[in-house]
Design a protein that fits this description.
Helix content: under 10%
Strand order of the largest sheet: 10-11-12-13-27-23-22-17-20
Radius of gyration: 18 Å
Low-confidence stretches: none
Shape: globular
Number of helices: 1
Number of strands: 27
Structural class: mainly beta
Order of helices and strands: EEEEEEEEEEEEEEEEEEEHEEEEEEEE
Length: about 325
Amino acid sequence: MRTVLSGTQHALRAGAYEAVIASVGASLRSLTCNGRDLTLPFDADEVRPSYRGATLAPWPNRIMDGTYTFGGVERQVALTEPARGHALHGLAAWLDYDAIDKGSSHVTLSAAIVPQTGYPWRIVIETTFSLDADGLTQTVTATNESPDAAPWGTASHPYLVAGEGQVDDWTLDLPADEVLAVTPGRLSPIALRPVEADDPARFDFREARQIGTVEIDHAYTALRRDEDGRAIVRVTDAAGAGVEMAWDAACPWVQVYTSDKGVGKPGHRTALAVEPMTCAPDAFNADRYDYDAGLIVLEPGASASASWRICAIA
């Protein structure tokens, strides 16, 4: 029997929520509540569009020029974003994960990043997707099975859907005080700026407001958190329905992308990517920057975890 292009399908259900996890990239293929899409889905028998719903590791976002120095050794990884000349979203997005535990409302998947040119460490990843009355929670845990310390970071890449219409029509509540300025075109980091400093109409969503025609593909930090230590991003439609994503202090950064694919191209401004990240863009080159990029150093035998939750706003 032929395996579909996105891998083994793991269907989950709990109350009003249903989700399907595809094994390739441990990808969130669909998430609904009462039949309403909360994320932009894709078909089981298609190659996953870009990084839609993928689990990103051992780095999220970009390594500029694919080069970094760690432990005094300069390394080069493959340039997987040829147009910009960067290494994008790590090494795990196209791994085929094995299910090591599964129930009707949860699945735990596992895969290993093997030592290779540019990243000579063995990292075992386990990720659990779990549905309950509060929505979908994903937890990612990495364990370093190498004899040497390894650089590490992770994130998810869901495209959130508030309802009918496009990104322009929705309201965004993004509790972040700082945004990472980047170069045009290549999106290489420059410096952190207060969201109100350079272009508040584009970047400042601390007070919920309509997104409109602004184009965003930027990392935010200095996240305001609730009494439980959670950062919460909300995207809603004109009627106030939509989707919420929340995460704890393990992710001090979040990338927000308005899905500017090009007018007429599939997926153009049809969803808002919200990507909680354990580290900043180009964190493997953290020494270049005068802010805390959040790079995690996994010692031999050590583990690190991060989690996030997606739920419906009625």
